[in-house]
Amino acid sequence: MVEALKVVVLAVVQGVTEFLPVSSSGHLVLGRELLGLEVGSGGMLEVVLHAGTLVSVVVFYGARLRALLGGVVRGDGASLRYVGLVGLGIVPAVGLGWVARDALGTVFDRPSWAGAFLMVTGGYLLLTHWARPVERALRVRSVVWIGLVQMLALLPGISRSGSTICTARLLGVSPKVAAEFSFMMSIPLLLGVVIFEGVSGWRANAIGAGEARVLALGFVVAAGVGYGALRWLVLLLERGRFWRFGIYCLVVGALSLFWLR
Questions:
Q1: Residue 16 has what pLDDT?
Q2: DSSP states of the chain as a string?
Q3: How far apart are CA 91 and CA 24, in angstroms?
Q4: Inter-residue contact 14 to 48 (CB < 8 Å)
Q5: Residues 112-126: pLDDT tens digits?
Q6: Total structural domains in the chain?
Q7: 221 is in which domain, residue-wise?
């Protein structure tokens, strides 16, 4: 019962922080350290929670995804271009994740790094308070910059949504378009993590029936909370309050560094 409660807590953290620009990986690293959680056969817990938030974004953008898929099937130029831009945007992160996977894993074993990188995220988010009030369309050059910045989100404490949306806003992309593109990129990335890490974890660790039930509970909670967090974020972006998350990241990062010293 205690372990199930801990998983629910982390599932709520994952659901909220996967989409809000406060770094889900950083919060999970700090959360595991604080709770001393060992459920999920190592990385399996994170895989299951990421699967839950993957469901959230697919449901939230379901209509847009169906329209894109239909457009691709029909050979629509706008749909094909958008899908191509999404593919271009994820190439840098996929490449770095594949090449430096082991090295990145060692960073996740040091919670103090998560605190430091949260402060970096906080500082970057504050820049959107001075973003230029223009609404440019997505271009290849801007997507390349967004993709390069997204590589940094492989580090715990660097928010993927925060770094990509912030970069898009600083390049003049409208809040709604920036958010949609950021989360469209998250779909293949989350799917890749879930499949690759899930298969590896399943082969390396035997999961009992009791543990499977706890992981399933975490999946459901992460999916539900993630959907609500995504709706909230889009609303805050449209109201120009995105930058305020930077204050939160700075405070949490500083407190975690003080706590972990």
A1: 86
A2: -HHHHHHHHHHHHHHHHTTTTT-HHHHHHHHHHHHT--TTTTTHHHHHHHHHHHHHHHHHTHHHHHHHHHHHHHT-HHHHHHHHHHHHHHHHHHHHHHHSHHHHHHHHT-HHHHHHHHHHHHHHHHGGGG--S--BPP-HHHHHHHHHHHHGGGSTTS-HHHHHHHHHHHTTB-HHHHHHHHHHHHHHHHHHHHHHHHHHHHHH----HHHHHHHHHHHHHHHHHHHHHHHHHHHHHHTT-GGGHHHHHHHHHHHHHHHH-
A3: 21
A4: no
A5: 778 888 999 999 999
A6: 1
A7: 2-260
For residue 198, name the pLDDT band (cuts at 50, 70, 90): low
Which stretch of 93-107, 131-145, 164-178 has the lowest confidence by average pLDDT? 93-107
Sign for the CA dihedral angle at 129, 133, 138, 144 comes to negative
